[in-house]
Amino acid sequence: MHRSPDGYRGRVSNSVDASGPWLDAARAAGLVDAAGAVRPNIFAEMSAIAVRTGAVNLGQGFPDYAGPQDVLDAAAAAVLAGRNQYPPGRGVPELVDAIAEHHRRFYGLEVDPATEVCVTAGATEALAAIILGLVRPGDEVVCFEPYYDAYAADIARAGGVQVNVPLRWRASGAGGPAGFGLDHADLRAAVTDRTRMIIVNTPHNPTGMVFDVATLSLVASLAAQHDAILVADEVYEHLTFGVPHRPVATFPGAADRTLLIGSGGKTFSVTGWKIGWVTGPAPLVDAVFGMKQWLSYVNGAPLQPAIAAGLALPDRVYDAIAADLRDRRDLLCGALTEVGFAVAEPDAGYFVIADAAPLGVADGEAFCRALPERCGVVAIPVSSFCSPGRQDVRSLVRFAYCKNDATLAEAVRRLRTLT
Ligand SMILES: Cc1ncc(COP(=O)(O)O)c(C=O)c1O
Hints:
Elements (H helix, E strand, L loop, with lengths): L21 H7 L13 H12 L2 E2 L11 H12 L12 H15 L9 E5 H13 L5 E6 L3 H10 L2 E10 L8 E4 L1 H7 L4 E7 L11 H13 L3 E5 L24 E6 H4 L7 E5 L2 H11 L10 H9 L3 H25 L2 E3 L6 E5 L8 H12 L1 E2 L1 E2 L14 E5 L4 H12 L3
The chain binds pyridoxal-5'-phosphate.
The site of pyridoxal-5'-phosphate has 15 residues, from helix 5 and helix 9.
């Protein structure tokens, strides 16, 4: 029998050893326990609990309502028109053109559709291609913590070293409402000549923060000073609530070192389509495509023209999507506050973070595991977005509000039974 070199104890087989580098990624994402067993990620685990218990799933961030009709119609038309074979590697012409036009229209950024755009299988593949393609073993990658879980997995797989800048929790009463804050000294200390890459996720998941101008300009200047690549994960760019989003690529000196990531799935409420993109200077985009071709190679042929149609929609459609989401945020934040959580009202995105400490909760993970049985709602502990040992987030939980009226109303009704 082949013996696993790293103590992996998954499905036991007498003939095959299934351990390998994927375990490094799982370990980095906190999915391997002390005995070497791998568990599903928290979203899969909590979604399974939701199905088993009939709980309302406010765990995973997918809207359960339809995206713009024009976008859906364009996808159906493309399928029926036979656009079902491998598309060009960097994306179909109308989508790469639409992405370039989108950047010009919303941000005044000029990108060459022929050389500075690469369409990917969601922002997830964009991140994988960027990190696997540009990080060598030992390179440091700076992330803001809490962080989207794929960063840790990709960095580990590339052999990189993740360096976290904490977004620290500030309980309500301590000089203002509850929320997260960033100490610029922490950021300055994290970025050094060992830094290969800084991943800036604004608007930020899970906190809902839109990074302010002072922070973004510091990020841009530190990247220039230490010759680091900036990875701007801006998948929630259009889902802001009255707070302007400014891409880090628009800051002085940033454009020629920034890979900007967008997600058609997030912007148009079609997360299952997995149409994302990367834009940036041609040599960096070449590197991303150089890696993407060995991952999905190409993706989403008929969905690409549909996202192109979405990107061309007038401002009022974008505004309506954000306004609608804002109403959902207000409804859920109001209910959580009423029940006794200390709520950090998000400025953007799909999620709200609530502190369960005022309800007598010390351990958010145990609270989330018990919540489906206790009141029929699923949430995600914020500790799942952090490295082990972050104490200030232990009682925090994340709820998704990108849910339809009936789902949200039922969730609110159930949450009220907590009082
Ligand atoms: C911050 C962040 N980046 C990237 C992604 C992945 O986006 P996509 O669904 O386009 O792969 C997500 C999805 O939740 C996210 O929250």
